[in-house]
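Continuing from the previous page of notes. For each protein in this section, the sequence appears first, followed by its structure tokens. Read the first protein now.
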Amino acid sequence: MEEAEEQDDTLGDKRMKRKYEYNYQRTIKLSLMVLFILLLFSLISANTIYTDAAETMKEEQNSTLSFGYNFILFIDWVFVLSPIPIIIFLYLKFGREQEFPELNTLPIYVRDISEIGNISPAEAAVLLDPDVAETGLNKVISAEIMELIRLGYLEVIEKEKSNGIKSDIIEFKPVEGKDINRLTPIQRKLYEFIKYHLINNTFSFEEYGKKIKTDNQARNEFKKFVLGLKHNINKLLNEKYIDKTGLKLGGIFTALYGMIFGTYFISSLKPEDTSHLIFIGLITFLISAYFILHKKSVLSRWTKEGRIAHEKLKRYKKFIEEMTTIEKKDIKDVILWEKLLVYAAALGVANNVINSMKIHYPDLIKNRITSYLLIIPISFEILESVD
């Protein structure tokens, strides 16, 4: 009986033990499943967080890149458009004429060129019109040749045709023994040009004009002479008369702009991405270059001395233009009339002097020297018509 009870106890213990082991294993399995589920969830959550973080970083990066691109594009546009405000600034700062108190005290008329100073006909012409080398070269040459005759460096030779009638062609002969060092550079250049192109010891623009029509070498030589003459005329407008600060600064800016534009926009960037910038840049560069090369007066202005001389010359020209209406006539000497005629030719109003002489002093027209001086501007116009 006791043995039977012990066996029942042993059997019960075994059952309890198996039941415990079963529950333990089940608990372990459940715990592992829960842990696996938690791990899987953690991995999914981590991946989601990483993805969200990556997208956020990408958006921030794109935003940064977009800001940088827009900023660079803004700088590019400022650069390609910069020539226009720069030219406007240089004009406002260095191109507008200054006002001086002395201008308010100038008389209505200036009656004698000596009131302006000891200036040559070419200097008078360029001080009145700074572009005269391009727009009125014939006036300068005519006036300076007339001055060479008046000063005795050239002699006028009158030719006759075979039938004894006077020829319309005016010829010049250099006078020997004269000191050419007393001449201005432009007068000396003209004198030497005539001296080195003599035909039978005389020179005429009509005959030389015929020559350069058929002789290419002579035509090229003449073109070289004209370019040198223009250079000498433009040199008269030195720092004494013209302030070229704006023009110099504009030239430096245009050169730098052209170099930067050429190397950066055309060489470095993709044309398909910046074609509009390149086009606008070329347009603004050409505008800037146009003002520097062809509209120099916009970025330069008269100095005080130049402005006063310019205004006096305007009044001197006005006096010549209105000579026929002025009641009082103070010019009675033929030498003074000849000098007046020389400077009137330089200023483009020689006909006014001629008309006034015909009205008030017709006897002076009969003077041989004066008569020749009246023909010289016409002589040079014949040569001017040669291409």
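Done with the first. The second protein uses the same format. Note its length before scrolling.
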Amino acid sequence: MSILELIALDESTPQLQAPTSSDTGLITGAFKVNGASTLVGAVSTGALTPSSIVGWTIGTNIQAFNARLTDVSGLSPTNSAIIVGDGNNFVLESGATALTSLGAATRGANSDITSITGLTTDLTVAQGGTGASTFTDGAVLLGSGTGAITALNVTAKGSLLVGDGTTDPVALAVGTNDHILTADSSVASGTKWAAVPAGARSLTGGNIFITESAAASSDIAGDGQIWVDDAVPNTLMFTNDAGTDYQVANTTDVTTEVNATKVIQGTKVASTSGTAINFTGVPAGAKRVTLSMQGVSTNGTSPHRILIGDSGGLETSGYLGAQALVSSGGYSSSTGNISDGMRISQTQAADTGNGTVVVNLIDASTNTWGMSVISGQTTNQLTLSASSKSLSAALDRITYTTVNGSDAFDAGLINIQYEI
């Protein structure tokens, strides 16, 4: 380029000299730009370069050529794209690719978020937070629309969470012992603890009270009903899921009955020592007591006998009974008016008795019991006995002993069974 191509902005002072063959020349005089600052204040010689014109240095206050800037200038200004270094050049990236390069969480994948730091306030519900920093341990969390989640403390023993139909649920404190939870629209929660109302049907003192009704409720497949009819006197009833009614009692005024008898098996006792085998603790309400004997014998020949008693002790008199002895040859002997208990004949010390003693309640109002015995002896004879006895209180004991009270048991087993 020829130096003569420079245009003087102030022609009154500068002098230009034609360049030499080396394309250099001289500028003399005060060459100015717009009549202002002097570019060359003295005679300058040598090559004319940009730095000699304006006083700038490449790499200091003038950007030198850079291939990376060329990469950037060649990128297209694509919408939503960002410039990212790939290790060699600058490239454009967007979407998931850009997120991966920046190490950001993938959109929609919360599992990629391992921590959030730098927050100065709690995230609100609208922001996906709770609006609170801490909650009471064990409390129930309550939503409040877009407001902060709140904690209701129901950790107190027996507390119940109860809604009031308008505002947040409330904690209903435990009630007084033996009180029941009942509905009450006059209190805010709609429920309260209260004493059992007088006359209410409930389980008290081991008894269940069921209000009588004229008929069972509607049948439900797979379910049965227990109810009390309103007859006089009323009776306990059971209705199956086919709608068939059964009276739960041992009575004779229904063709089909359900016998609610409970059988309690006692513990067997070895009759190998002592002069009496005693069974005490007969359950209250027992209707039948059965003794079962196997190979029972004593060291003497005194007849065996059965005694019953109550809390006042065993009864040894006042029995009304008789006994018959049948041997292998036929009828042998009989004894009547036996009043000292119910007897079982034992003619030899070697005899062993096998059989049952059954004691049945005849009249609960007078505590009267009927008794019967069938016992076979190994000496080919059979004892049949029957008796009755009234007690002064409920039967609570029964004893297997001998008439003389001194012969000792030396073999056998005896067990007891109660029916209530």
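What the second structure shows: Residues 68-102 form one domain. DSSP finds three helices and 31 strands in the chain. We return to this in next week's lecture.
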